[in-house]
Structures are given as structure tokens and as C-alpha cells.
Input
Amino acid sequence: MKITRDMIISEVLNMDRGTVPIFFKNGLHCLGCAMATTETIEAACAVHGLDCDRLISELNTFFESKNSPEANA
Output
């Protein structure tokens, strides 16, 4: 699964709670707020003045590493 800008924050969190530190590291600390269930990653980054490309890249790297053959060995 590839993470995209138009995905809802809670959707990604529900895929894997291991993403929480990535959101925190990138400045999104309000993961439990009501907006997390309706707001896209892109919208949240825009509101908070964050680098959306970096966040998406780090999230995709996280999921790719979990799905790599080495991770499943």
C-alpha cells in the first residue's frame, strides 16, 4: 500500500500504529483529535505549515521496510 497526500490521517494510523512516531516527528501531534478522522494528510500539513512530501516519504519508507523480504524473514 502506498501512502498518498489524499489519505485520511486516521486511515494511516489504523493501518499501523507504528506510524505514530513518524507523524509526531514531522509535527503532527494531534492524532487523537476529531480532525484526524476527516482531514487528509495534505490538509493537515498545510494547516500546520509542515513538509507534506517529507512526511509522505517517511511513511512510505516505513511501510516498504515492513513489507521487504528481509522484514519477513
About this structure: The first helix runs from residue 9 to 15. The chain has four helices and no strands. Residues 9-66 form a domain with the SP0561-like fold (CATH 1.10.3910). The helical segments are 9-15, 20-25, 41-48, 52-66.
